[in-house]
Specification:
ExbD/TolR family protein; about 40% helix; Nucleotidyltransferase, domain 5; alpha/beta; two-stranded parallel ribbon
Length: about 130
């Protein structure tokens, strides 16, 4: 008789995990919906070194590779198209800001061209990505 009593007690003490799974599922949906995704420029670059470096969440990433090719949103962009492309991306996200990722071998003229185009379309926050030395 004591064997049946312990089995009944064990069954009565089982924990129902359904509410906990519901909460975890809702939290998962919340984090997926609120997550911000970083847009990649489309080309890998070796960033120049700097003594101070800080990277925040950005809206627009522009890369300049060692051949002085400009890449925006995984597409190669000609010099004359930079302003139009930045203007389109600015229209999609008016509060966004720009990060230029130049290669160590990239010319400063390309970086200046991108920064100038960004200022002309109204992007006030422009920064250059570097690696901490």
């Amino acid at each position: 008789m004591s064997k049946k009593k312990t089995t009944a007690e064990e069954e009565g003490q089982a924990i129902d995990l359904t509410p906990m799974l519901d909460v975890v599922f809702i939290m998962l949906i919340f984090f997926i919906v609120t997550a911000t995704f970083i847009k990649e420029p489309g080309v890998d670059v070796l960033k120049p070194e700097a003594t101070q470096s800080e990277l925040k969440t950005t809206s627009i990433l522009v890369a300049v590779n060692n051949n002085d090719e400009i890449w925006i949103a995984k597409e190669k962009v000609e010099d004359r198209q930079v302003r139009n492309t930045l203007e389109r991306l600015r229209a999609e996200n008016p509060k966004g800001w720009l990060v230029i990722q130049p290669d160590k071998e990239a010319s400063i003229e390309k970086v200046a061209l991108i920064a100038d185009a960004a200022r002309r379309v109204g992007i006030e926050k422009v920064s250059v990505a570097t690696e901490k030395s």
